[in-house]
Write a structure and sequence with these properties.
heterodimer; A: alpha/beta; Beta Polymerase, domain 2; six-stranded mixed β-sheet; two-stranded parallel ribbon; globular; B: mainly alpha; Cytochrome-c3 Hydrogenase, chain B; three-stranded antiparallel β-sheet; 47% helix; 10% strand
Chain lengths: 186, 467
Amino acid sequence: MNAVNAAVEPVEPVEPAEPVVPVAVPDVPEAGTLHGCPFGESLGAAVVHCNRDQYLDLCSALEADGYALPVGVTGVDYLTHPGRDLPEGILAERFEVVVELLSLADHKRVRVRCQVPGDDPRLPTLFGVWPGTEAHERETYDMFGIEFQGHPDPSRILMPEEWEGHPLRKDYDTGHVPVQFKEAPH
Amino acid sequence: MSDIESPRKVTLVDRLLGRIPPGGAQLTELLENKTDEGIQEMAPRSRTSARELELESGSVLRLPEGVELNRADIDIETPEEESMILNLGPSHPSTHGVLRVMVEIDGETVLRSKPVIGYLHTGMEKTAEELMYHQGSTNVTRMDYLAPFFNELAFCLSVEKLLDIEIPPRATWIRMLMCEFNRISSHFLWLATNSADLGALNMLVYGWREREMVLAFFEKVTGLRMNHNYFRPGGVAADLPDGWHDDALALCQAIPRRMDEYDDLLTGQPILQKRLQGVGPLDAETAIGLGVTGPLLRSTGVAWDLRRDEPYLAYDDVDFDVIVGTSGDCWDRYAIRFNEIRESVRIIEQIVDMVPPGDFRTQDKKITPPPRNRIDESMEALIHHFKLYTEGFRVPTGEAYVPIESPRGESGCYIVSDGTSRPYRMHMRAASFANLQAMAPLAKGALLADTIAIVSTIDPVLGDVDR
């Protein structure tokens, strides 16, 4: 046994070579840019902010970085909550499209938050980057009325086809059944 | 019939034997001439011609082995470009809910398919904006109704992340215990319905029976079989009842034994193997690009399980295997879910010994209401309780997304808070919704009967898909 160990020992000090891309790169830097877009963190999660013009390029670049699994695309209507924290250079718009991405190889996640103007809610589709965004984009269109240009099937997915309005917009009112207080029956 | 002079009635035995009683010739004639289409009853066996018998037994169409069937050789007209659109569902027993699959078929082969969803859409994300945080789990628990604990867990973890609070260790372990039992009950239901879709109807009954065993445990703990509303931001609603330890261990003993029986019943069965093996293969690259997660992704050989790869709760402290397939076909998905039940039992056996004593809810008075018996004796407790249930608790501004591994894949809850006591936006990343995107590529070129197996092994829960 000792002989074996002695034979092995000289080999052991050779430490595994440092990976070309150092793993020690802080996953969540305090601030900075990623592919030219402001990069920050939100409660421990990496978040990239972008404008509509940067959206497709940023997402394609992230796909090339190894974020191969599209977790989801959804929207937020900030109509009644305008004062949110955004990095410099990003102008707050009414809608925000949130794309959650996952890299299986690096066990990393990144969230893309793209500003979409309320008077012209359009974005290029991510279908060409990840086919798995197809249903999510249809849902976002259905719920928020954000059009994804170039989408193979830009139709409603959850609501009936002839439905008017987009339910998750903040100016889309929910129905009410008024509570009536009547006299106690005699 | 009075105009027929029949000495005795034609009995069933007569018909089966093709016996014509005296005077029956007239009866046959009458039946033959009764409709425009000719005879409406089966003619006696003796009247079947030799040619018809050959057709019936298949000897005419039977070909020697190795000879490939040429479509042109059959003199039945089958225009090449004739296809048909068929709707499977929305109310079809094998679609596991109100899923409608539009398929374009050529004969039995599926050319295209498209899942049409939304029949169960109830606007839960909109509802969530109206409910306070402590009411939220009542809403989300109804999404994936076969795995209610996972919806509640995703929601609660997300709220807790926004609140930046730690929950007591006992609550963490109780949550894990319930989630793993829920994974078992969900997979049992899948095993039952999947087997029923493929014709193994006895397994349908067994699967429901075993699930009911687990649901009885849930009922004991939470008071309800489904839609528990048991996980709350800050912990769980109630402590485990007396005797939970024995109940959990009894289940852990019973389930693996039953699983061995079902292994004998199903896994070796040639019909089931033929229906699943090689059907609907999915490769890893397609699966990842489609955003597919859970057993569907693992069947393609990608060992991705959030319990191991992005541990939440206390999954770091338990020992379990991630079941991975190789070919990504229906058979792999069957095997993965089957063995995940065993792994969950293994996890529960460890959890049962490790549930620590202590609080089951955080002692943060801003989040946890005072216990019921305190309200009777303390005015402050009553006021506190009243304030918490009328105004709720405020959650700091921010956004959070917490993913967890549900029986169907990655379930995650994205919450945007504007600092009030109601979520500004709550979005549930539903595993079934994303996984259903794999339906069309999998069914392409498959037989119509295999489409049923494919839908079944994708295991969509329509409450989760439509929300």
